[in-house]
Amino acid sequence: xxxxxxxxxxxxxxxxxxxxxxxxxxxxxxxxxxxxxxxxxxxxxxxxxxxxxxxxxxxxxxxxxxxxxxxxxxxxxxxxxxxxxxxxxxxxxxxxxxxxxxxxxxxxxxxxxxxxxxxxxxxxxxxxxxxxxxxxxxxxxxxxxxxxxxxxxxxxxxxxxxxxxxxxxxxxxxxxxxxxxxxxxxxxxxxxxxxxxxxxxxxxxxxxxxxxxxxxxxxxxxxxxxxxxxxxxxxxxxxxxxxxxxxxxxxxxxxxxxxxxxxxxxxxxxxxxxxxxxxxxxxxxxxxxxxxxxxxxxxxxxxxxxxxxxxxxxxxxxxxxxxxxxxxxxxxxxxxxxxxxxxxxxxxx
Length: 349
Ligand code: UD1
Hints:
The structure is a single chain. The protein is 40% helix and 17% strand. The chain has 349 residues and is an alpha/beta fold. The strands form four sheets. It has a seven-stranded parallel beta sheet, sandwiched between helices. Helix 1 (21-32) packs parallel to helix 2 (49-58) and helix 3 (72-81) runs parallel beside helix 5.
């Protein structure tokens, strides 16, 4: 599937996993900022309808190639036929923590193999700039908060976490070898929300594992009360604390990273940034924000702690603000409102 026509504008950007949750919102931001995105997605954890939603939001079709990013030959063909690729945003990866423990080989193959194929082909075609999706999971439970980029990474608590750490190391080693790449490693905190049009949003295939999709299904009557995973943590209300960031703010950090890399004289280059809001929100506060935003009440039950959960984490965003000039501007409540609008459109799905 391809629609490689269109103006080059500020540059053609390959977006692996571009039909996924964060990827699709980043496509919108790229188009709004004059870039020409090219989606690569194998639709293993995304829906083809997303590409139509994107066309409706952007007012024109977005190029899309259905391939597995680990398939080097297929990737090479995309680089040959899409037109010159000026930069890459690499989202494509398997991301379910529980599943990664059951299927470690799949996770290592997809997440490491995909990145290595991409770097190989980028090298062949002389594509220099790459934004990589990493995760705050690399910090584990930090000793002091907020976490800065200097906070040491912890031993990974899951295979998924290990793949993010190893991918960061692969990129750092490739850059250290003198390969002419410029790389930003974005460590995401907890992305939530949806595009306000409700044409794209988070579409978990199967049973959702993350808090907000579970809240949405509970509010929509698809599932019963929310189980709060422990209220005996050492936090003000006893529930875990996370840094929830609106997916549109997160998307903007990718576009800003591309601009920043283009401005740098230095090559090779690798730079890591936390991408969060800098504010911690407890599970109870997240539920309260949802109730205010949606006008729905959520039945809550306190259950046992979830194995492997960490008590609290939130970002220091000083570096990303100072260096990239990027800052999250949306509130958790706005994110909940947009997420709920998306769920209302999905209905009982
Ligand atoms: C999880 C992953 C993390 C990954 C991130 C991606 C684990 C241990 N960690 O993080 O590696 O990068 O998703 O978004 O799975 N909660 C409830 N009830 C629920 C669901 C969640 O109380 O039914 C609580 C959790 O205890 C947690 C918070 O909600 O405190 C957020 O949970 P979740 O959305 O799963 O994200 P993380 O745990 O931060």
